[in-house]
Amino acid sequence: MRAHPTRPLVAVVGQGGEEGGVGFDALGIPYARSLIDLAEVIPVLIPRALPVEGLGEWIEQIDGLLLTGDSSNIEPWRYGTAVEKGRGPYDPQRDALALALVVEARRRGIPLLGICRGCEEINVAYGGTLWTALHEEGFRDHREPDSPDPRVRYRPAHEVAFEANGWLRRIAEQDTWTVNSLHGQGIRTLGPGLVSEAHSPDGLIEAVRDAEPRHWILGVQWHPEWENHEDRLARGLFASFGQVCASFRAGLSAGVSLR
Length: 259
Description:
- This protein is of the alpha/beta class.
- It has one domain: Rossmann fold.
- Helix content is about 25%, strand content about 25%.
- It has six helices and 13 strands.
- The strands form three sheets. It has a nine-stranded mixed β-sheet, with helices on both faces.
- Helix 1 (about 30-40) crosses helix 6 (about 230-250) and helix 2 crosses helix 3 (about 115-125).
- It is globular, with a radius of gyration of 17 Å.
- The model has no long low-confidence stretch (mean pLDDT about 95).
C-alpha cells in the first residue's frame, strides 16, 4: 500500500540550462517558494532526459504536475508547422516529456498546472497550434523588456479579461487582472477539449483549462510565481492547485471547486 507524505508530491518539469558545456535541469526559486509556501506541496524536479517510456514507473507516486516556463520554444513540427529560422532555441527532450505528461495527467486525472511554456505545451498536447512570433502576426509584442534586471522583465505588462464563468474569474473575484508578459509565442488554435479562461486586449488567449470540470488541468501564459506576495490571483491560483493535489492524494476527484 502506498505511503503518503504529509504534503502532496508534485512533479515539476523545469528549465534547462548549461554550464561549462554540461547541461542541467533547474527549478527556479520563485516556483519552489510558490509551491512550498502557497500550494503547500513538496516539489520534485523531474529530469527532461527521463524516457517517456518509463513514465508508468513513477507517475503513480505523484499527486500533481507543474510545467514551468522556459526560454526554449516547442518544436513547430509538433503542431504541424514548418520549422522557421530564428524561432528557437528548441528543447526536444522537454517537448517529448512534457507533452506525454499532459496526456498522462488527463488520462489519470492528475492535477496539472502549466505556466507560460507549460500553457503552450498543454495546448499542443491537446492538438492545438501556436503562433511562432506574435509580434509579426498583428499582436502586441508580448516579449519581456531586454534588461538584466528581473524586476523589469517580470513587471506588470497588460491586462487580461477573464471568461465570465471561468475558474480564474472565481479566484480573482473581478473581471480583469494585470499580469506580466514574457513570451514570444502563443496559442493560435485552441486544442480540442480545452476552453479559454482569459484573453489579452489584442485577442490572444492567455489561459486555458480542460473543458471537463473533473479534470483540473489549467494553463496560464503569464508568470504567477514571480513576486506574488501581494498578488491575490497568483496566490489563489497556487493555493487552489495545492488543494486539488491534496484531494487527489486523498483519493478524491481533482475536479473540485477552486474556492
